Amino acid sequence: MSTVIAKISSVSPMLSSFSVVDIFRDATKIGADKKSVTFSFLIQDLTKTITDEEALVIQEKIIKKLEGEGVSLRK
Prior knowledge:
Blueprint: H1 2-9, E1 15-24, H2 27-30, E2 36-43, H3 52-68
């Protein structure tokens, strides 16, 4: 998990924090070899207001990095 967090943290200089909030394991609800992880991240720029588009680009980069690590996003 720490390698995933390290890779995510390098996505953008505007990503000021990224952390694991919760890990849920229940074989009957999500599968025997799976876990559900809740992440929290803060995107900010101290010099200007971030646009929705800028935040969305960073969010998409985070998702791509997670998918590259074998993580699937529940939608």
